[in-house]
Amino acid sequence: MEPLSSEKLAGRIKSGNFSAALCPLTPSGGPLSAFAQFCSGAAGNPAKLADPAYDALVASAQQKSGAAAAAAYAEAEKYLGQRAVFYPLFYEKHYFACAKGVTGVVFHPYLGGVDFIRAGKE
Hints:
Layout: H1 6-15, H2 33-36, H3 52-62, H4 66-82, E1 102-103, E2 106-108, E3 113-115, E4 120-121
Antiparallel strand pairs: 1-4, 2-3
């Protein structure tokens, strides 16, 4: 493992000169938008993946909602993991906590906010 500056890491990733890279990946929207970053031709595609089968999985997931969307995105995540393209190790940036008995607080880790509209205390 060789620690690199952000600039050197970006250069290595762009050139493909690495065996494995641990790099930050921040989705532009919610957590599911991270999957679109690996689609063929996506700007900033860290793995340079160009795979029509993966693109079809993501396109299918984007057309669904609820449990069907969750299952489709799980398939896309499995697809990336099986091919050693991407595996999320951890999320950083924001840490949220609330006291025991607090209910209804919604944390938005990717947008960096907290919604107290339905907040209450037991």
